[in-house]
Amino acid sequence: MVYFVSPLWQFFEPAEWLMLVAMLFAAGIPYYMAIRDKTSLALATTLSILLVYVVQTMTWILWWLGLGWHDPLFALVAVPDLIVHPGEWHRFFSAAWIHSPRDATHVLGNALIIALVGVPLEQRLGRKRFMLVYLVGAFAGNLAWCLANLGEIMFGLGASGAAFGLLGVYLAAWPKDEIEFPLILIRPWPVQLIAMLYFAMEVARAWAVHGLSQPSHVAHVAHLSGFLVCYAIGRPVARGGPVAPDTRDSGPSQAGAIEAARNQRRGGMASMEDDPWEGSEHPLSEKAQHTLQRLRKEGDELETREAWLERLAEQAQCPLCGSELRLMGEAGNHTINCHDKSKHFSWP
Fold first, then answer.
1. pLDDT tens digits for range 149-170
2. Which of 3, 8, 99, 229 has the most CB atoms lying inside 10 A of its own CB?
3. Model-level pTM?
């Protein structure tokens, strides 16, 4: 039977609903603040999973004190036999925010990768692309784990698929970057070394479990799937972002990301060789002609182009109707348009 509301919701007691609301608030508030303040979504994600873990730990303490178990975990984790039901699809993503309260190393290990790998990767990819690959890694990991365990009574949880996905994207697009990471020593290490080491270790662990039948509660297939899927989409997603794939510079930093964004806007600036006023009924005055010459000579930088375009808009008229002109657009994509009808005239 296909259903759209999980049966678990209808059995929730007020305490479960309270904990669920607390989890959602803990998960969402870091993103709200990051979006409001335009700060790192990678750090917001790190803080988000840690805050959710704190709420989950509170539920464990309440249970330990004999006050009942009120963790809505089972309505949020990935369950293999529920993947066919549309009402359960949220689990492919919500499971990436849930960790066992009894295993702090799991959440701390994921938080370490998301923070140390995610922050420089976000500076390369941009905020939206970072969140896209994070969610793709979470989805791919949980989907693969559910498909590999159909018919089993078990559930998957944790951000490991998403964390490994970040490593996969970074390896695909900027393998020679060096980032601070604790491999024996805390120092800059090449991304390709970090990513391939983690991948090789995971392959070895998966072989020990599936090839040598050693017991394990770790979802190795989720880790490998998140890594491989995100590696496959890494370069296509990175194209068009703030920093082109394989860029070699001083390394990922906020200043580097800003400079990369400026270079991208400069590269997209339109040519100013044509003169729409020449031969029109409303040609440029001598002063405006001089401004146009200065604009062509000095307008290869964002700020100078904006300044000269603004002056030209004050001195010239629409070559078609003689109306006043106004400056429109954003840095790298500024145009001067007819004031009366913006679509009437737009240059350059």
1. 887 777 888 899 999 999 999 9
2. 99
3. 0.70
